[in-house]
Amino acid sequence: MPTTAKTRVRRDVGTGRGTTKRGADRIDPAISAVLGAYTKPVQARLLALRRLILKTARETDGVGAIEEALKWGQPSYLTIATGSGSTIRIDGIKSAPNQYAVYFHCQTNLVETFRELYPELRYGGNRSILLDAADDPPEAALRHCVALALTYHLNRRKRQS
Fold first, then answer.
1. Which of 33, 91, 127, 159 is in Cβ range 3.0-4.6 Å of 106 for a Cys bridge?
2. Residue (of 43, 41, 8, 14) closest to 150 by Cα position
């Protein structure tokens, strides 16, 4: 599969707060193929992380529908409908087969904010939260970090007004 910077593989996978769309969380075969390349433990964790992102998007005011796409060969979640947030990407870590990560745009202050809120998490520079497939994920912290990323631009606009 090509790993071009932007390979759109899926239409909107979520809807606004409090509503659901039948089949909204169905996974596109191209995304499934990328996730299927990892070990079963990492694949299971990435699928759970995907569900967490989609659910958080549905439950967070102002986010709207999420588009799932492959960017740089990684499943990515974009707030195309509202432009409320910064792209979130998920992927296994190829150099560490039992690890995976949630990636955020490195030119935002998101990871810096996460470090202040959750110093107990492991970080990859200013762009990711690193996780181990053998450990239970810190769901509450991840949900909060995802919500902050999905509303990054929305919150910046509010602060500038």
1. 127
2. 14
**For residue 71, which of 28, 31, 11 has the smallest C-alpha distance?**
31
Give the domains, in start order, of the chain with CATH numbers. 6-160 (3.90.1150.200)
**CA-derived radius of gyration, the chain:** 15
Give just the sign of the alpha carbon dihedral 62, 139, 103, 46: negative
Rounded to whole angstroms, the Cα distance separating 139 from 15 reads 22
pLDDT digits (tens, 9 = 90+) for 82-112: 999 999 999 999 899 899 999 999 999 999 9
pTM, two decimal places: 0.83
